[in-house]
Amino acid sequence: MQLIDAGNDEWLRVVNIIGGKGVAHKLRQLGVMPGDCIRIIRHAPLGGPIMIEVGGRVIAIGRGVASHIDVEKSECASL
Amino acid sequence: MRFALIGQPNCGKSTLFNQVAGYKAETGNFAGTTVNYTESKVRVGGEVIELVDLPGTYSLTGTNPAERETLRYLGSRQVDVIINVIDSTHLSQGLSLSIELLELQHPMVIALNMMDEAAHMGLKIDGAQLEELFGIPVLPLVASKGRGVRKVFLSALAIAKSRKTPKRPSYSLDIEEAIQSLATFLDGKDAYWDAEPLAIKLLEGDEALIAQVATQTPGLISQIQSAQQRLEQIRGQSSVWTISGERHGLAANLAGKVVEQGERKIILRDRLDNLLLHPIWGYFFLGAILFIFFEVIYGLGSALEAPLIGFFNNLDLTLSTLLGSGTLGSEILVGILKGISGGVAIVLPYLLPFLIGLGFLEDVGYLPRVAFLMDALMHRIGLHGKAVVPFILGYGCNVPAVMSTRMLEDRRDRFLAAALATLVPCAARLAVVFGLVAFYLGPRLALGIYVFNLFVIAVTGRLLTSLMPEETPGLILEIPVYRMPTLRNIFFKVWFRAREFVVEAWPILILGSVVLAILNYFQFADIFNVLVRPLTWVMGLPERVGVPLIFGILRKELSLIMLRQALGVTDFADGLTPIQMVTFTVFVVFYIPCLATLAVLKRELGWREMFLIALLTVVIALLAALVARGIGLLVL
C-alpha cells in the first residue's frame, strides 16, 4: 500500500521508497527510511500535504511525495 | 581559536549563538532560518574565540546550497572544535548527524538542547551513557533560557586545547572494506580532507563533492564506482542506502539505549493543531490571525502617525517662518526635517508593530503550519508549500526572503520563489500602503491592496509556471512544536531588524530629502520628471511624482517621504486625489525591488535573472497600477 492511501492515526512501517534521487535523499535526511515506523497525524484538505510523525519528529509531506512511499500496517510504535 | 555550532535545522544553534554573542543571528521556530554563517568573537574562560553559527543541516550530504555551505566550511578544516547541538526531543534523528560529524574526526562536544521540553515529553536521557559510548563530552542545555551554556563552552575549550579527536563508530565489515579500499586510494591526494571521512562521503555519492575532488584526482570516478558496485552486489541495494541506512539504524539503536520514554503529559499545545490545522477551521483561523495582525498594525500605527505628523507640521511651519523660505540653506534644512519626520511619523509607527507581530508568529512556530495549509494552493502557482517561508519573510524584508530561497533544492523553484517574493510588499512598502492609503482612505482599502497583491502574485506565478514547466518533487518540511516566545528574544529580534532601518535606511531617507531639496532649488527635478513622464502620464499621476519614484529604487520608503516634498505639501490630500493615491501605492508595491534586494538577487541568482526580475516587476507594476486606476475610477 502507498502512504497516500493510508488513514489517520495508524502505525505504519515503511517498506520501500521509490522515486527520484531528490525525494529519496530529502526523506533520508529527515529520517524516513525503509524499516521506520510512521504515523499519519492528519491530512490537509484540497489535495494538500499529509502530516506524519517519525522518530518523534513531525513532517509535512506533499501528496506527490507520499505516493512514492510504500508502507504496510504494523504494530510498531516508534520512540 | 574557532568553534563551530552545527546541528539539524531548528535545534537552537542560533539561539545558543545569540546567548553568547548578542543578537546577531536571525532565529525563528522553523527550519532554515540561518542560510549563511554568522561569526562573532566571544570570550570563553579568559580566551577570545571565533564562534561560527553554521546553517542547520539534516545530514552532511547536501542537496541545497545552505547544506553545502556547512560541509564546505567543515571540509576546509578551519574549525578547532565542533559544538554539535541536538534537539533532545528527537534524539535519534539528531544522532545520525552526530555520527556523520564523528566520522570527520574533528574534536567535538555534544550539547543536548531543549532538555526542558524533552522532560516535558516524558523523555529521560542518559547523557553520561552517551558520553561513554561516543567518548566525547555530552552536556545538557536549555539555550532559550541560557541554562548550561557556560559549561558547554568551557568543555568545548578544554577539548579544543587537548585536540582530542573522537573515534568514529564502525560500520559492518563489508562497508568498512569499501571505505578502506577507497581511503587507501585517496590517501594524501586531497589537500583539505582526511582520506577516511572523504571516502565515506564519496561512497555516499555526494555529487558536488565527487565533482570537486575528481578534478584533482584522476581515476577517482572509476575507483568510487567499483567500490560502490562491490557493495551493491553484497547488499542488493545502492551503497547510498546501505551506508545511510546503517548510520540511521545505529543512531536509533543508540537512542534506544540512552532514552527512556516515561509518561507523556498531553497539554494544550498538543491539541492546538486540531484547531489551527483543521480542514475548515484552520483556514478560518489563518484568515483571522492575518486580519488581527493587520488591524493591530493599522490601529497602533495610525494612532501614532496622526499626532506625530501634526507635531512635525507645526515644527515645519515654525521653521519656515523663522528662517524664511526660498534660500538654499532653508530648503536643505526643511529637507532634513522631512527626512527625519518621515522616519519617525510615517515609517516607525507601522514598522515596529509589524516587526513585533512577525517576530511573535515566527517564534511560536506558526509559519511552517501556514506552509502546510497553503501547500495545495501554492501548487496552483507552481511552487510547493515550503516556498511560503520566503513569502512570509518577504513581508518583513525582501532581502532575507530572497536569501531563504536557498532552502529550495531546485534552481527553477529558487528563481520562481525569488521572483514572486520580490512582489510581496515588504515593511518599507507597508509604510507607503499604511501611511498613504490606510491613513487617508481607510484601512479597508489598504487591506484591499494586500488582497489585490496576493491575486497579482498568483496570476504571475501561474504565468511563469506555464513558461517554466513544473518539476517540483513536492513538499517535505519539518513542523516544529509550538513554543512560547520569550520577551527577550522578541525584543532583540525587533531591535535587530529595526536597527537596520535606523542605521541603514534612515540616513538614505534624509539624504534623499536633501538631494530633492537641492534638485528643486535649482529646478533640476524636472529633468527626471520628464524622463519618466510616459509612465506617470499613463497612470494619471502628477508629473512631479517622477523623482520620488526614481529614488524609491534606493529605498521604498523614500518614494513616500520624497512625495510630500516633491508635491510641496505636508498633507498628501492636498496634492493627490484618492485615485492617484491608490494608483501610486499599487505601482510602488510592485515595481523594481529596492537596491538591497537587487543586490541579493544578483548574488543568489545572477545578473541575467536580476535584470529579468526587475523588468518583470516594472511590467507587472504598470499593469497592476492601471487595473487599480480603472477599478478606482469605477468605484471611488
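The first strand of chain A starts at residue 11 and ends at 17.
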